[in-house]
Amino acid sequence: xxxxxKRDVEALLRDYDSDPLAAxxxxxxxxxxxxxxxxxxxxxxxxxxxxxxxxxxxxSLDALDELxxxxxxxxxxxx
Length: 79
Prior knowledge:
Layout: H1 6-16, H2 20-32, H3 39-45, H4 50-57, H5 61-74
Helix pairs in contact: 1-2, 2-5
């Protein structure tokens, strides 16, 4: 798993308000170094509880914001 670059984080922050799912998915594909990934597949790969994954699959803004915050602050995912 790669860390996000400063440029990746800037892109996430720039694009998040207009399309949070696309911005997060772009960041995750870069972090995992994969060319294509569906939102559901990305959520499945995340190291978090089933409840948190369920909120992400429902596009809960709070859950999306929390994931974005983690990616921005850590340039990746907490273990």
